[in-house]
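tokens incoming
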């Protein structure tokens, strides 16, 4: 017996070692290598020097100085991201690099989370593909001129932290199934759901849809009594972060203000002026719904047609070597054709348009597979896929008719894109009990994978193009970022001149409000806005109410107001009929021009005005 055991061990050991090495290579080494390469190529090139991201730095800096969110700083979203970033500043120091380091660590954890989550229902190879695509296409990209649509320095940390917590919640839910004691993991999942509510509503609502779907179908794979117990643990723990947040805010604010701070992220949803603005209609695709629906159908057809044609090919009479040669040719010619025959800018614009329909196909197919499945393992996998699919589909509600990976889609479309990519590359993990599997048979799968390679290469080429242009270093104090050279971006020269002017002419304690959106200048110069408001782009001006904003500014006007000449294509110039006309008129009456920083391009002028009245009235 002993000799047999020893022999058996010796025979099995090489195979075990091979499996472990393969596991380590695919789940660890490959994503780590991609992470290091992507971070190195894009280093310091993630941040726009003016638009959006400035408030992600300004707010935690002011919180660290003792100000209170919602009382001293007007904020539209939940408090979690702002106070977490304040803690990062407190530990690592107040600088852009501190948030970069923290979020690079978060990206690494997110990569592991996505890999672990998808491995639960699609296997090791699919998990490696998904984590690699996340790093290549979503964590570090820049597909258009404006940056901030990445996970390192996003336009809103509320969004990226929210999606991180959502993925973590789903991981805890899935890994709690069939455990002897699911309580601890279901409690952690509940906490993640509650924390997500303190970020952005679109992520929280999508996660709620996913959790409801999971709770509805999970009894098919586990004991009903245990799931009742699971719900009793999950729901109270979901309330813990929300109640705790309210209790902490009450300490600094009144009861009503604390409630608005805890739930205030949902207020803009019910503000008709915000939802119906040209910008958010464009974001959702409701600016031209019929046109965008046709675009969605066209993208869906262009993606599905070559896969459909390929799946109908009969390759049964071909030899293995012939099949391999044909597959290799397809993998070469499809990406080359995408670059040579199609406009890559058009591909970047439309590559995500078909995502809602593709996810809908997956949901329907998985429901059918779940109803037919008899094997417990197949049922379990189908439940996980269905939950993730519904979560991914619900995330697209905000951008449903116009999914743009280069814009909000870098977060909202990420889970859905990864799921579709895994289905295309590994259909047997999804449709083993569904009639849909024929579509992704051998030739169909080869075509699907070659299309996925082409999409990946097109998107990567766009990012690399923008990275190559961002070599000009912009430095202010401990903060440094790489931006476009002045000949590429006229803003660069004006920003540098403004930083010099501020250092020479603006008193250290002077306040300045940069309009309509330039909190980055406040942060880089370490000058406060002198008001509750960090920026006032048109949607926020509508959300706060122009009359309310004017009332606040009249009571305590900032010493300086900086007017940026940049014109948003959706709102028109600041001061136009739809973009702060009353506020602009009040500024004109009460502020005197001090200086204008210009490089000859009027659209990018920086106008510096100072309070011109002898006394504040």
């Amino acid at each position: 017996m002993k000799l047999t055991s020893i022999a058996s061990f010796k025979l099995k050991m090489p195979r075990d070692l091979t499996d472990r090495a393969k596991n380590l290579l695919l789940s660890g080494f490959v994503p780590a290598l991609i992470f290091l390469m992507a971070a190195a190529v894009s280093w310091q090139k993630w941040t726009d020097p003016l638009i959006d991201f400035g408030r992600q730095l300004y707010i935690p800096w002011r919180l660290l100085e003792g100000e209170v969110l919602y009382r001293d700083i007007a904020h539209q979203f939940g408090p979690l991201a702002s106070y977490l970033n304040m803690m990062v500043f407190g530990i690592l120091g107040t600088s852009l690099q501190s948030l970069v380091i923290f979020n690079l660590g978060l990206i690494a954890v997110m990569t592991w989370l996505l890999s672990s989550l998808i491995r639960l229902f699609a296997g090791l190879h699919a998990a490696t593909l998904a984590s690699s695509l996340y790093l290549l296409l979503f964590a570090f990209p820049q597909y258009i001129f404006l940056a901030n649509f990445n996970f390192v320095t996003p336009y809103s940390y509320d969004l990226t932290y929210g999606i991180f917590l959502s993925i973590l919640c789903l991981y805890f839910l899935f890994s709690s199934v069939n455990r002897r004691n699911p309580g601890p993991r279901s409690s952690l999942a509940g906490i993640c759901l509650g924390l997500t509510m303190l970020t952005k509503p679109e992520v929280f609502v999508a996660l709620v849809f996913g959790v409801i779907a999971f709770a509805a179908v999970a009894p098919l794979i586990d004991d009903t009594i245990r799931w009742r117990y699971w719900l009793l643990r999950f729901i109270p723990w979901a309330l813990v972060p929300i109640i705790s947040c309210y209790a902490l805010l009450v300490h600094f604010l009144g009861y009503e203000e604390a409630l608005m701070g805890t739930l205030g992220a949902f207020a803009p949803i019910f503000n008709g002026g915000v939802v119906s603005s040209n910008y958010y209609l464009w974001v959702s695709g409701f600016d031209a719904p019929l046109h965008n629906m046709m675009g969605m159908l066209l993208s869906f057809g262009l993606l599905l047609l070559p896969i459909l044609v390929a799946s109908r090919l009969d390759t049964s009479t071909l030899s293995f070597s012939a099949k391999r040669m044909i597959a290799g040719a397809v993998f070469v010619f499809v990406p080359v054709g995408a670059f040579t025959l199609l406009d890559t800018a058009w591909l970047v614009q439309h590559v995500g348009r078909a995502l809602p329909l593709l996810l809908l196909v997956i949901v329907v197919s998985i429901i059918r597979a779940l109803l037919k499945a008899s094997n417990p393992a197949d049922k379990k996998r189908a439940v996980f896929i269905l939950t993730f699919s519904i979560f991914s589909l619900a995330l697209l509600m905000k951008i449903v008719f116009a999914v743009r990976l280069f814009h909000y889609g870098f977060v909202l479309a990420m889970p859905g894109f990864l799921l579709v990519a895994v289905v295309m590359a590994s259909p047997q993990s999804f449709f083993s009990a569904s009639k849909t599997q024929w579509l992704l048979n051998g030739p169909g799968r080869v075509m699907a994978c070659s299309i996925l390679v082409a999409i990946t290469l097109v998107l990567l080429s766009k990012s690399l193009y923008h990275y190559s242009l961002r070599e000009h270093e912009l430095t202010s104090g401990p903060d440094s970022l790489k931006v476009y050279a002045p000949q590429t971006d006229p803003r660069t020269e004006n920003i540098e001149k403004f930083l010099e002017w501020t250092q020479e002419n603006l008193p250290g304690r002077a306040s300045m409000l940069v309009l309509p959106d330039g909190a980055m200048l406040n942060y880089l110069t370490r000058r406060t806005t002198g008001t509750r408001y960090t920026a006032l782009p048109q949607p926020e001006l509508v959300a706060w109410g122009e009359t309310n904003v004017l009332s606040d500014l009249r009571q305590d006007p900032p010493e300086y107001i900086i007017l940026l000449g940049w014109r948003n294509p959706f709102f028109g110039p600041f001061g136009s009929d739809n973009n702060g006309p009353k506020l602009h008129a009040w500024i004109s009456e009460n502020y005197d021009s001090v200086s204008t920083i210009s490089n000859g391009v009027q659209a990018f002028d920086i106008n510096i005005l100072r309070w011109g009245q002898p006394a504040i009235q």
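note: Strands lie at 472-476, 479-483, 512-515, 560-564, 591-597, 606-611.
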